[in-house]
Amino acid sequence: MNRTFARTGAILASAALGITFAVSGAALAQTKTAKKAPAGKDAAAAARGKDVFQQKCSTCHYDSSDAKKIGPGLKGIGKRGTFTVNNNKVTDETLKAWIENGDSLMPPFKDVIEDNQIKDVIAYVKTL
Ligand code: HEC
Prior knowledge:
Helix content is 61%, strand content 0%.
């Protein structure tokens, strides 16, 4: 009786171990996938930037078209790599300066949204 009990115990214990290994294996696999995607951070910023865009920019700009609303449609600005308004190169810096300061036709956003929201919206605009 005692021996049977001990054996059952051993079998149960090794079954439990097997499950533990299987679970930690899955966890390891997950960590690897997360590390494999270096775009993850940019993608998260762009996703937050999309919200900012919808709240602060979409009244004047389309993001799904290059047609003019009040300002130029921003679809394709990232791929094209140049501003239509002044032919400047599209970089994080030029976008930041533009969004912060605006121009005679676009209001400045420096005091309207946070620095990190400007970064996020830049990440989003570059994907358009
Ligand atoms: C009140 C309307 C208005 C809002 C709100 C607005 N813009 Fe603009 N934006 C304009 C206008 C108008 C222009 C064109 C300026 C010109 O022709 O001189 C422009 C131009 C731009 C350009 C240059 C586009 C190109 O093709 O050269 C970018 C980039 C831009 N805006 C980004 C943004 C972002 C990002 C936001 C939100 C944070 C925003 N704008 C909010 C009106 C607006």
